[in-house]
Amino acid sequence: MEDFITFLATNHGVFTRGQARTFGLTDRQVDWRCHTGDYVRVAPRTFRLATAPATWESEARAAALSARGLLGRLGALAVWGVDGHPRTGDLVVVVDHSRRPRTAMATV
Questions:
Q1: 12/19 Cα distance (integer angstroms)
Q2: What span, in angstroms and rounded, lies between the C-alpha atoms of 26 and 20?
Q3: Which among 18, 39, 74, 108 could bridge 59 via Cys, Cβ 3.0 to 4.6 Å?
């Protein structure tokens, strides 16, 4: 569990069910911790530790993990710290076209 805590600390408290499984948590344990308020569901298959603040970074990470893609366009430039690209606005997540993604928009 210590490794999972370290992982959460370096990933804005955001994780997927699959990532939780790699640290030994079962789906039932994740669901229970959502029920008790320890975790917050932020997107399909994606959660945030309840004590971790909801930040632009955590929302961007959750969007990319949920879509199983990568943050793209201006959001990616902001993550990489390119001058003049604020951490606000629409998030664009790039996914493989063979997955036939649904279009969804989120503004943070």
A1: 14
A2: 7
A3: 108
- Look over the chain and give the mean of its residue pLDDT values, rounded to a whole number: 80
pTM attached to this predicted model: 0.74
Residue with tokens 């959750």: 62
| Distances in whole angstroms, Cα of residue 55 to Cα of each of 22, 26, 31, 46, 48 | 25, 27, 23, 15, 11
Tokens of 70: 């990568």
Residue 55 makes CB contacts below 8 A (sequence gap 6+) with 12
Phi, psi of 51 (to 5 degrees): -85, -10
Q: Got the DSSP string for 20-70? A: HHHTT--HHHHHHHHHTTSEEEEETTEEEETTS---HHHHHHHHHHHHTSE
Q: How many residues does the chain have?
A: 108
Indicate the residue type of 67.
A
